[in-house]
Amino acid sequence: MRISFIGSGRVATHLAQIFAKQHQIVQIMSPTLAHAQKLADLVDAQAIDVFEAIEPSIDMCVIAVSDQMISQTIQKLSHYFQQTLIVHTSGSTHLNVLKQHYDNVGVFYPLQTFSFESKIDWKNTPLLIEAALDNQQTPLLNLANSLSDRVYLYSSEQRLSLHLAAVFACNFSNYCYDMAKQIVDQHQVDFNLLYPLILETANKATHNAPKIVQTGPAMRGDQNILTMHQNLLASAQREDLAQVYQLLSEQIMQRKNH
């Protein structure tokens, strides 16, 4: 396939590089040409910074921009393509955001967290596929199956629920790690000591229902420890963390009984 990307951020960077192993990456577009050029150099593509420079004779165009820019981007792209399949990579944006401006559209959403520094285990990364036209499911599935062993045909509504769940499982849990680091840093304790606990907790959650393996003072109903922790946060003048601690503890205790 001949594929172009709109966007040069983390998702575009990872997808373009893995696609380039089997397909031709034609163009990388970014409003900042230097950003487009950086990714284009990695995948032997042309860097562009305006829609007028788009090569229309490609098989697929991947919109890998922020969610709020997807609608604006498809409106502009619809003037340059006729048969080309246009897909977005968003977990939460409905397919109709593309469909209302162009017929041949789809979704290629990798359920993964991306950073420029990390490598992605594509074989184990779930890929969620959706297509407006039935005849476009096959090429999208073929492309996804060439990368991952975990490919799913999910609706926009199902994908949104997964994206919400991912925020809890990834973004919120990572912020909990950040709060933990703030606490130990304030008391000159090595955050590295928590690494085995973090890894074991994640491992247990992937092999058991999280509710079953929930532990801690809130789960035990140990009010003495809960109060001790709250007092420590109060003495450190961390009312923000104290509020989070209380809310999560209350939710754990309520969940225990349901």
Descriptive account of the structure:
There is one protein chain. This protein has helices at residues 10-19, 33-43, 67-77, 96-99, 137-145, 156-186, 195-207, 217-220, 223-235, 239-256, and strands at residues 2-6, 24-29, 46-48, 60-63, 85-88, 105-110, 127-131, 151-153. The chain is α/β, with parallel strands linked by helices. It has two domains: 2-154, Rossmann fold; 160-256, Orthogonal Bundle (N-(1-d-carboxylethyl)-l-norvaline Dehydrogenase, domain 2), CATH 1.10.1040.20. It has an eight-stranded mixed beta sheet, with helices on both faces. Strand 7, helix 5 (137-145) and strand 8 form a beta-alpha-beta unit. Helix 9 (223-235) runs antiparallel to helix 10. It starts with a strand and ends with a helix. The mean pLDDT is 95.
Name given to the CATH homologous superfamily of the largest domain: NAD(P)-binding Rossmann-like Domain
Number of helix segments? 10
Poorly predicted ranges (pLDDT <50, ≥5 residues)? none
Beta-strand residue percentage: 5-15%
Written as H for each helix and E for each strand, in order along the chain, the element string is EHEHEEHEHEEHEHHHHH
How many strand segments? 8
Mean pLDDT rating:
95
Count of folded domains: 2
For the biggest sheet, the summary is: 8 strands, mixed
Please give the order of strands in the largest beta sheet.
Answer: 3-2-1-4-5-6-7-8
- What is the 3D form? elongated
Q: Give the CATH class of the largest domain.
A: Alpha Beta
Q: What's the helical proportion of residues?
A: 40-55%
CATH architecture of the largest domain: 3-Layer(aba) Sandwich
Cα(first) to Cα(last) distance is: 51 Å
What value does the Rg take, in angstroms? 22 Å
Structural class: alpha/beta
CATH topological fold name of the largest domain:
Rossmann fold
Protein name: DUF2520 domain-containing protein
GO molecular function: oxidoreductase activity
Keywords: Oxidoreductase
Pfam families: DUF2520 (PF10728), F420_oxidored (PF03807)
